[in-house]
Amino acid sequence: MTEASVREFKMPDVGEGLTEAEILKWYVQPGDTVTDGQVVCEVETAKAAVELPIPYDGVVRELHFPEGTTVDVGTAIIAVDVSGGAAPAEPRPEAARAAEEPKAEGSGSGRQPVLVGYGVATSSTRRRPRKGPEVPVQQASTAIQTELNGHAPVAPAAPAPTAQAAPVTAGRPLAKPPVRKLAKDLGIDLAAVVPTGPDGIITREDVHAAVAAAEPKTPEPSAAPAAPAPAAAPASYDTARETRVPIKGVRKATAAAMVGSAFTAPHVTEFVTVDVTRTLKLVEELKQDKEFAGLRVNPLLLIAKALLVAIKRNPDINASWDEAAQEIVVKHYVNLGIAAATPRGLIVPNIKDAHAKTLPQLAESLGELVSTAREGKTSPAAMQGGTVTITNVGVFGVDTGTPILNPGESAILAVGAIKLQPWVHKGKVKPRQVTTLALSFDHRLVDGELGSKVLADVAAILEQPKRLITWA
Questions:
Q1: Which of 138, 322, 323, 366 would bridge 327 by S-S if both were Cys, CB 3.0 to 4.6 A apart?
Q2: pTM for the whole thing?
C-alpha cells in the first residue's frame, strides 16, 4: 500500500452554504471494505441529519475524527486505500455530489463538493464566511420521536458463484425521479434493490419491499485487523450538581433563528376559543370514507385545510418581508409547515403547494411528513421555502401559546388542546368539544384587521366545517 493509493474523503457541503457538520455516527471502522455509494457515516448540520456515501471502492485505512466532532466543510474525515481497484472515473450523480474535491495544491479553482443544495465554494483551504441562520425552526408540535440510530450498512460479500444477489445493471440503477427520491428519503441504496418493472426499472413497490426486508446489521469485521475506533466525544457531561449539554446542530440553529425572528419581526398574537364538536364528528365520518382508506385522518388535517381556505380568502397573509428590497412579497402558493419536536431539536418540514391538494392528498402528505420525521429522514429541502406554519401544542395538553414566527414567514397558527367543556349551544349550556387557537403574525405587513379576519375564518370553518365546501 502506498500513499498514492490512499484517497481522502472530505466533508461535503450537506446544506446550502453551511460551513460545518457534526459526525453523529460512523458505520465503518478501519479495516472494513467499502464500495462505491455505501453509506459510511451520518452527519448533522444546522438543517438536518444526512447520511454520507463514499464515492469509491477500497478498504478503510483511518477515521480522522471520532463521533461527536464538529468538522469544517472541506476537511478530510476518512482515508480509504483504493489500491485493490481503481477509483471510478465518473461517480454516480449521488456519489459525485459528495466526492472529494481535486487534491492539486495551489490551483485555487477546486469546487467544494455539495451533497444537498447549491452551495459552492472556490477554495479548498479557506473556511467560507458564515451565513446567518436559514433553517426554519419553531415551537414543539406533534411530539414526533426520531430514532437516533442510523441504518448499518451491509458488509459486501466476497464473490461466489452460488451467492444470491440482486440483478445489477451497468452503471446507475434504473428508476424514475420520484422513486429515487423515495429511496433517498427511506435510506435505501437503489443498487441493492431488486427491480420488477419493465426493462429492469425499479418501482415504488420495489423500494418498499426493500424497506420491509431490511434489518439493522452490525458490519462484519474484515480479515484485516481493525484499529480501535476513536473515542466518542460526550454528548453531555455531569458536574457535581449540574448536567451540561453542548449547544450545536439543530438546537443551536433553533436558538439563533428564534432570537433573530423575535427581535426582527414585531409579533402580534390574537386568540379565539371555538366549539369544534362538528369538526370532530366530521373526522370520524371521514375515517369511514373509502376515499381516505389507508390514510391518517385527525383534527390536524381539517385544521390545516381550514387555514388553507382562510389564506385563499385573505391572500395577503401569505407573504414575507424583503428588507433589502424594501418590498412585501405576496406568495401565490402555500408551502404549509408543520412544526415537529424531535430529540435533535425542533424542525418545521413543509408540504409543498399544499393549497393545490385535495383533502385526501393533504392527508397523504401529512402522513408522509410525520413518518419521515419519525425515521429521522427529513431532508433539508423539506424544511426550506415554507410560507406559513401550524404548531400543535395541544398534543402536550397545553391550552394555547404565543408562537414565534418562522424566519421569513408572516404567520403561524398554534392549536391548543381540544377539551370537553360547558358551552352555550343553541341557547343552552351543553358539554362541547372546545379548543383555543392563537395566530401570531408580523405586524410590519399584517395589520390587525387582516390577522383578525384570518383567525376568524379558521375558527368559523372549524365550528361549521361545511364551510370547507361553501368557501373553498
A1: 322
A2: 0.56
